[in-house]
Amino acid sequence: MLDISNLHASVDNGEKPILKGLDLSVPKGEVHAIMGPNGSGKSTLSYVLTGRDGYDVTEGKVSFEGEDIGDLEPEERAARGLYLSFQYPVEIPGVPTLTFIRESLNAQRKARGEEEVSAPDFMRLIREKAAILNVSMDMLKRPVNVGFSGGEKKRMEILQALVLEPRFLILDETDSGLDIDALKVVSDGVNALRSPDRAMLVITHYQRLLDYIAPDKVHVMSAGRIVASGGPELAKELEAEGYDKYVRAA
Ligand code: ADP
Ligand code: MG
Ligand code: MG
């Protein structure tokens, strides 16, 4: 589904190379985890995949469902179902969460040339998805992220993913401290989204998250490349022994 070959990417107008020959394939239906030391380029990879401004591909290729997406705008990638979950949730005073999620869904539909969702259809959809994550209607009426706890913000982030139903979901769980509650929310969301025609890339520092998610593959990233790949046991090994072995190998 996602095929990345020899990807090189830079910031600062090509002055600063960060990804240096990265290869990665994620087949449809699979969940892959990426782990690796701070600064190895994990977040950069997620930005490059979603086409964020300021991250330039200098070599290599990214194809999504057989299509080279290197020249597509972020909106065009989103319309194809490539979705990066927000890592640092913003507060939007005055905008009820319900409204925000509905507008996100309608923006996605518009980009695909589809009609807006009707109010009753949206309510049916949001009730169904909110139930999976134990989110109350009261909470959905509150303004986006204002006064939400870390776990509640996480719930909203995952709820949005459940509503938008991306074909390919990228979750970057970088430096944010995930407590047990948030770990559960993220893993319930990922597990609810698992499907034979969807794939996910979960970037995480948390071995414990991978206990709940049970990824099909685990990759280690170091210095802008994937330097090791394996099954879930690789995450356990990293937890026990750290990244040293792989960092040296890079
Ligand atoms: P990770 O997510 O693995 O911690 P990042 O992708 O955030 O790594 O960063 C990789 C390296 O690229 C770091 O050295 C970081 O400082 C640098 N970097 C990332 N984005 C930028 C940017 N916009 N401008 C300058 N340096 C950047
Ligand atoms: Mg970082
Ligand atoms: Mg990061």
UniProtKB/TrEMBL annotation:
SMART domains (UniProt xref): AAA (SM00382)
Residue intervals of the ABC transporter domain: 2-248
Alphabetical keyword list: ATP-binding, Nucleotide-binding
UniProt keyword Ubl conjugation, yes or no: no
Coiled-coil intervals, chain numbering: none
Pfam assignment, any one: ABC_tran
InterPro entries assigned: AAA+_ATPase, ABC_transporter-like_ATP-bd, ABC_transporter-like_CS, FeS-cluster_ATPase_SufC, P-loop_NTPase
PROSITE patterns associated with the record: ABC_TRANSPORTER_1, ABC_TRANSPORTER_2
Family label: Belongs to the ABC transporter superfamily. Ycf16 family.
UniProt name for this protein: Fe-S cluster assembly ATPase SufC
Origin species: Hyphobacterium vulgare
Name of the coding gene: sufC
